[in-house]
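dumping this here so i dont lose it again. seq + smiles for pyridoxal-5'-phosphate
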Amino acid sequence: MNQHQSLDFQEQEFANILQKTIDLVLEQYAKVDQQAGFHAISQKDVAAWFDEPLPLLGHDPITLLEQVKQQVLDSATGNLGPNMYAYVMAGGNQISTIADFLTSTINQNATKWHLGPAMTEIEKRVIQWTAEMLGYTPDAGGVMVSGGSAATLTGLTVGRNVFLRQHNVNKHGLFGLRPLTIYCSTETHSSTDKSVALLGIGTQYLRKIPTDDQFKIDLGALQRQIEQDIKDGLEPFCIVGNAGTVNTGAIDDLTQLASIAKRHGMWFHVDGAYGGLVSSLPSLQEQYKGMELADSIALDFHKWLYQPFEIGCTLVRNWDLLRESYFKQADYLDTSLEAKSDRLEFNEHYFQLSRNAKAFKVWLSLKAYGFQKIQAMMQKDLDLTRYLEQQILDSPDFELKSRSDLAIACFRYIGQGLDENQIKQVNQDLIAALEKDGRIFITGTRLRGEFVLRACIINHRKTRASIDYLLEVIRDVAQHLRASASQHAD
Ligand SMILES: Cc1ncc(COP(=O)(O)O)c(C=O)c1O
């Protein structure tokens, strides 16, 4: 190693480290089809691997990578493979892995144009492509953010600020304002609650509107609540629509929401973190009508676009809206260069100053695979979900609890001859038992208070055989649970 001049290695030594890394990466893909959902290693054991003092002296990188293989790679939760069904874990893709590696190699800071010229132009281009995928305005402004939560916070920040500007808060101050109210369905993701708290709106003013039998917002109840709030002297300012809820994939009537928002002069934000990017599929055109009317849209590329974590995006109708919220003059961030050119400065359009060049992996994978191929994978995931639903309907020991147009199925194991209490118990117990078993990874949720298993199927590596295996493993673990419950009862 070149010990005194920098942290860099001699060329051959670096090449050896890279080769070892490539071997580890290839090994991940060699067995990806059989990747376990979870490795049941105790928290204490995992903590113990890393329980050591600050290393003052360096270790041989090849030996270290061997340790990384055993303690980090081999214990990793199976997000790549076909046995992951929990939350929304989309499996990543190989081209983006390479892109992330190259991105950190050149270490561009996607904040000011001249700190990453190509990366800035690529991010702008990805934003334009994203607007095109969604049928949103071609002039859309946008920014890559960490994920759906940050994307909703950004959209709602802009919406709140536009509203405050319209009410001339700079002159009259906040204290002359009536409380702002914001509306969404009871199925809306908790990131909206977090944003509302962070933005100082207050969660007591977040109106959670009930849903219909398909878990879509009840439009009549929404209108009644808005009218009541106006009567009560409150200031309705925003509606958050769901373009795919996290629980069941329900898509609200976005056209109606846009028109209610317009009627009352409200901002219309769409949470498309789960479902927004699948809207381009011909099979889903009808369901997503109205999304193009949103004032802001939150998206997650680490869901339907199969990107590795983390990358989300906020779209707004034009760049000025972002800049109004985020531009801050500072002497050390000279703005004279862009004034004379078309340079776009992302730091003026987002809260962060330093930013990694997230859009590069989206750009490279869209170029390498082509959007049509990615769309084919999306459609395959939808088709596999319909297959899972059918398998559940055809199995006397399972019960389907929700249907959606997207890639989520909620269901319960009902066994044979179990009463309702036993069914409730076995489904609750299944989550921990399946984690311990590790073959597949699935979590649950509550639908109108009832606990259900929830399978999310966004992974281009899944096949019908993976779906069959899911039900087979759940059945197997449930039967073991029931057998030990009856032994205890005896
Ligand atoms: C509908 C919805 N909104 C927001 C989020 C939050 O996204 P993230 O985890 O990327 O912050 C999710 C995540 O699953 C989601 O499904």
